[in-house]
Amino acid sequence: MQKLSERHHEYWRKNLRITAILLSIWFVVTYVVAFMARDLNFTFFGWPFSFWMASQGALIVYVLIIWYYARYMNRLDQEHGVAEEE
């Protein structure tokens, strides 16, 4: 079995950390904000806030999460010398 160097451990620590942070954001947007939005009774861009959160807001956040993860991992791969050749 191959032993991992400290550099590999650092790479995976950073990878797991950003994954946990982004999954936490996903959870909050998907369950917490959408659930609490029912109690927020105000109009947002002409629609009830709960409708907007369920139909538009969450999708925007999901796309931003994917974009940020891809960008972060590309930089991390280059930093640790494991980037794919283009």
Question: What descriptors fit this protein?
Answer:
single chain, 86 residues, mainly alpha, two-stranded antiparallel sheet, 2 strands, elongated
Describe how the helices and strands are arranged.
Blueprint: H1 6-37, E1 43-44, E2 47-48, H2 49-80
Antiparallel strand pairs: 1-2
Explain how this protein is built.
The structure is a single chain. The chain has one domain. It has 86 residues and is mainly alpha-helical. The longest helix has 32 residues, at 6-37. A two-stranded antiparallel sheet has the order 1-2. A hairpin with a 2-residue loop joins strand 1 (43-44) and strand 2. The model has no long low-confidence stretch (mean pLDDT 85). It is 74% helix and 5% strand. Helix 1 (6-37) packs antiparallel against helix 2. It has 2 helices and 2 strands.
As residue ranges, the low-confidence spans are none
The figure for the number of domains is 1
Strand tally: 2
Helix content: over 70%
Instruction: Bin the strand percentage.
Output: under 5%
Which strand order do you get reading across the main beta sheet?
A: 1-2
The major pleated sheet works out as: 2 strands, antiparallel
